[in-house]
Write a structure and sequence with these properties.
The protein is of the alpha+beta class. The protein has helices at about 35, 40-50, 70-90, 95-100, and strands at about 5-10, 15-20, 25-30, 30, 60-65.
Length: about 130
């Protein structure tokens, strides 16, 4: 099997993933997944598509993550891995899609408006 690549995005995070057959090693920005994501919840989010298809020990994944925070990066990585798995085996698409792993979450931060402290919050109104 050759190397399969895919891209995932979430908020301002971008994940580029390279998947090849191997032993289940996940490397992110030249660091091991345990070192890059110390939180067990974020590691669980990243591995969700693999565990759904029971292929945790089947592929080696090398990922480049850029931008955003750790939550957005983990969800972008999950989308990229799911897209790569569909490229490898098209029959997995229905199962991954039904669990929501192939849906790009398009929510972005709304910009701050002038004359307001935040995007929607207004300064306190004073009648007198």
């Amino acid at each position: 099997m050759e190397i399969i690549n895919a891209t995932g995005r979430r908020k301002s995070a971008i994940a580029r993933v390279y998947v090849k057959e191997g032993t289940g090693k996940i490397t992110i920005n030249n660091k091991d997944i345990e070192e890059y994501f110390p939180s067990a919840i974020l590691r669980y989010v990243v591995k969700q598509p693999l565990s759904l298809l029971e292929q945790e020990e089947k592929f080696d994944i090398k990922a480049n993550l850029d931008g955003g925070g750790f939550t957005g990066q983990s969800q972008a990585l999950r989308l990229a891995i799911a897209r790569a798995l569909v490229k490898i085996n098209a029959e997995d698409k229905k199962n991954l899609k039904s669990h929501g792993f192939l849906t790009r979450d398009a929510r972005e931060v709304e910009r701050k408006k002038p004359g307001q402290p935040k995007a929607r919050r207004r300064f306190q109104f004073s009648k007198r």
